[in-house]
Predict the structure.
Amino acid sequence: KQEVTQIPAALSVPEGENLVLNCSFTDSAIYNLQWFRQDPGKGLTSLLLIQSSQREQTSGRLNASLDKSSGRSTLYIAASQPGDSATYLCAVKYGGATNKLIFGTGTLLAVQP
Amino acid sequence: GAGVSQSPSNKVTEKGKDVELRCDPISGHTALYWYRQSLGQGLEFLIYFQGNSAPDKSGLPSDRFSAERTGGSVSTLTIQRTQQEDSAVYLCASSRREGATVRGEQFFGPGTRLTVL
């Protein structure tokens, strides 16, 4: 069964700290992996997408890595800010006829000022 | 241009009533997806449309759920005879058709919060 897990479920850090969010998936035959953030009561905002052939993607203070062989991805946030507080979700797309995303359980991040 | 839009943003209905949720994808996006986000189940896939191909309905939880996409653009998700367990946030996403230079990144709308009393 294709499952996606995120650890930790919740994380609280002081402003300015660098942090890492983890995502693991049981089936390594992924097509791509996408990281999202979700603010309370809002939809999902796409942060980064990594293709299966890539090892990492960067956008501003965010860096996402992918290690297919170990079934893991990490989202690194540098110099965290209170505005980074949100739920972070990773989602995996597998090849085949369907393009559906399989979502992880999410990490609730709180950055304390 | 505008992002994915959904309406209504909130819907409260009584058990047994039918509801229709609407999604307007990003212009030019050929693929459209519906997902559901509930407290107990997290985010789960419901249905996927790609151009004129037959939709992937593998995620629909029961035959009370149906969706259509007219003219390759706007989509409507219909839930018949709503039950309390249908209460959730229904999210729509769209993406461009994947190709050599197109990654198929999915962009989400703000969602419709459905409450069944």
Chain A has a mean pLDDT of 93. Chain A touches chain B at residues 32, 34, 36, 41-46, 49, 51, 89, 91, 93, 97-103, 105-106 (CB under 8 Å).
